Amino acid sequence: MNKEQRTAEVKTEGAEQGAFGSEGMSRILKAKEAAGKADQWQQAFEEIKEIYLEMDMSQALKSPLLKTLIKAGVDFKTAFEAANLETIKTYIEARAERNVLDRLRQNASRAKENGIAASKSSPFTAGGAGLSKSDREDIVKRVLKGEEIRL
Q1: pTM score of the predicted model
Q2: Cα–Cα distance between 80 and 55 in angstroms, integer?
Q3: Taking the alpha carbons of 47, 53, 59, 64 in that order, is the dihedral positive or negative?
Q4: Backbone dihedral region for residue 19 (phi beyond 0: left; psi -120 to 50: alpha; all else: beta)
Q5: Residue 142: partners with Cβ closer than 8 Å, 6 or more residues away
Q6: I need a labelling partner for 14 at 20 to 30 A (CA). Which of 7, 38, 96, 97 fits?
């Protein structure tokens, strides 16, 4: 706040105090403070609604603990979350479960890409070095039948 704004504010308060007296001025200041808090609470409430989209806000705002915490000076968002902790936990668990199920459905419907299948690769290595005795016998039988084998 610059010097001109402070000077204008002091003049306005002085004029208001002269018109309403010191008692009336204290009521005006309390009303301004309450209006400022109401604006802060409204902003916090809008933010909370965006975070907890599907939560029943009308029920959550009826919590007596919420009112107690706000009267004690706790900011609205913190008070709301503390007063409705169990409801929020349940909401978050349900949301996480839905997200996991959606992800599983998406992955199940997705086509498999080449080269990332969970199956084993070719049972033979390049050349004949990794062949077992039964593999070699099988190859000999196939060759004797006339089949051409390339390793």
Answers
A1: 0.43
A2: 12
A3: negative
A4: alpha
A5: 149
A6: 38
**Does 125 have pLDDT greater than 70?**
no
pLDDT in tens, 29-61: 666 666 667 777 778 878 887 887 777 777 777
HSE on the CB side for 31, CA within 13 Å? 6
DSSP the chain: --HHHHHHHHHHHHHHHHHHHHHHHHHHHHHHHHHHHHHHHHHHHHHHHHHSTTS-HHHHTT-HHHHHHHHTT--HHHHHHHHTHHHHHHHHHHHHHHHHHHHHHHHHHSPPPTT--SS---SS-SSSTT--HHHHHHHHHHHHTT-----
Say whether pLDDT at 91 is over 80: yes
The answer to whether 66 and 80 are in contact (CB under 8 A) is yes
Rounded Cα distance, 2 and 73, in Å = 29
